[in-house]
Write a structure and sequence with these properties.
It is a single chain. The chain is of the alpha/beta class and about 250 residues long. The protein has 2 domains: about 120 residues, D-Maltodextrin-Binding Protein, domain 2 (3-Layer(aba) Sandwich); about 100 residues, 3-Layer(aba) Sandwich (D-Maltodextrin-Binding Protein, domain 2). Helices cover about 35% and strands about 30% of the residues. The chain contains 8 helices and 10 strands. It has an 8-stranded mixed sheet, sandwiched between helices. The chain has a two-stranded antiparallel ribbon with strand order 2-3. Strand 2 and strand 3 form a beta hairpin. The protein is globular, with a radius of gyration of 21 Å.
Length: about 250
């Protein structure tokens, strides 16, 4: 009897020890980029990025907290150690890699212009000459407009993607350049039925990864291992299907 009691106590100690040593990770997302990260009516963070973050944490058996952070301050917050990782549909770019490191991609991104139906816009430098074009600040879309249309069009950037879409609907913009999937999500809403994609899909080999601080090699390895597991065990596919009827990987 005493032996059984001793073994039970010993097992309990091991379980407590395992819980005490669960990896604690704080993850930031924007919370204003549907359908990837946004807040529901209860103020809770939801979306594809959030679901991926939670699935990764479950796979890693980590104790995670997901917090909202404005886009402009999201990398500075990581560098200031306010959190350990960013899962916020962030493109892996050479410029960002000067400051932070990235995991393997967890999806691939493309760009599309959105304008009013029947606008007749042609997505060329001459076709968009003099037009008012919008994008979210500090994004691949904003950089693409800067690199390709700044000299011939009027380019305006916004703190959030939603603010750019609001100005498009208010007639203050002729077109918005956005990531293809948030644009797809916006267009499928009944209230946006008067708008559509214009021009072809713009493939700039844009890969989306998890940003971490440079030198955090163990966390990077853990995320990459967990990402592969989610792909292999079908979890990634199930999350993808909740948001899109096609693969975005």
């Amino acid at each position: 009897m005493k032996l059984k009691l001793f073994m039970a106590v010993l097992l309990g100690c091991f379980l407590l020890l395992g819980t005490a040593h669960a990896q604690k990770i704080r993850i930031a997302t924007e919370g204003a980029y549907p359908p990837f990260n946004m807040k529901n009516t209860k103020g809770e963070l939801v979306g594809f990025d959030v679901d991926i973050a939670r699935a990764l944490c479950d796979q890693m058996k980590a104790d995670c907290e997901i917090v909202a952070q404005d886009w402009d301050g999201i990398i500075p917050g990581l560098l200031a150690k306010k959190y350990d990782a960013i899962i916020a549909s962030m493109s892996i770019t050479a410029e960002r890699m000067k400051k932070v490191d990235f995991t393997d991609r967890y999806y691939s991104n493309y760009l599309r212009f959105i304008a009013k139906k029947g606008s007749g816009l042609e997505v060329t430098k001459s076709g968009l000459k003099g037009k008012k074009l919008g994008a979210q600040r500090a994004t691949i879309s904003a950089q693409h407009l800067e690199d390709n249309f700044r000299k011939t069009a009027n380019v305006k950037v916004y703190d959030t993607q939603e603010a750019a879409f609001l100005d498009l609907k208010a007639g203050r913009l002729d077109a918005v350049l956005a990531d293809a999937y948030p644009g797809y999500d916006w267009l499928k809403k009944p209230e946006n039925g008067g708008y559509d994609h214009v021009g072809d899909t713009i493939d700039i080999n844009d890969k989306i990864g998890i940003a971490i601080r440079k030198g955090d090699k163990a966390l990077k390895a853990d995320f990459n291992k967990a990402l592969k597991a989610l792909r292999d065990n079908g979890t990634y596919g199930r999350i993808n299907a909740n948001y899109f009827p096609f693969s975005i990987y």
